[in-house]
Write a structure and sequence with these properties.
Elements lengths: L1 E4 L4 H11 L4 E19 L4 E7 L3 E13 L2 E11 L5 E21 L5 E5 L4 E5 L3
Antiparallel strand pairs: 1-6, 2-3, 2-4, 2-6, 4-5, 5-6, 7-8
Length: 131
């Protein structure tokens, strides 16, 4: 369990937690709230994420992802659904999320290593189950 507080960035904190504990194959779920976030939508043609800023207080309705071994340490991959004050939802690949007031993360480590390998077709580092 990892509990984040106001002002922490969800991706940065989860990455440092994984590095400190030498996590290489984990998955997680989380709920809480952000004062703002940046989500991404992967543009296949550009092979990059289109950044979508969320500039208001939102509920983290669902945050799911994994932690894998990368060339430069653990790599966090997370997708999020955010609830706005009018009841609408938005989401995507979580690039950053500013916690306010809390984010409660339940993280489960698996016994095997998961490694990402660069995929030239997509331009992304994808999990390679044979590694």
């Amino acid at each position: 369990m990892v509990v984040l507080s106001t002002g922490e960035d969800a991706i940065e904190r989860l990455t440092s937690f994984a590095r400190d504990r030498q996590l290489h194959a984990s998955h997680f779920t989380a709920i809480g709230a952000f004062s703002g976030a940046i989500v991404g939508y992967f543009d296949w043609e550009k092979k990059d994420y289109r950044k979508i800023p969320i500039t208001e207080q939102v509920e983290v309705l669902s945050l799911v992802g994994d932690v894998t071994a990368g060339d430069k340490g653990p790599k966090v991959h997370a997708h999020v659904v955010l609830g706005k004050s009018d009841g609408t939802a938005c989401g995507g690949h979580l690039l950053s999320g500013n916690v306010r007031p809390t984010l409660e993360i339940v993280l489960t480590e698996t016994p095997a290593y998961l490694r990402r390998r660069f995929d030239p077709e997509s331009g992304l580092a994808l999990i390679d189950p044979t590694a």
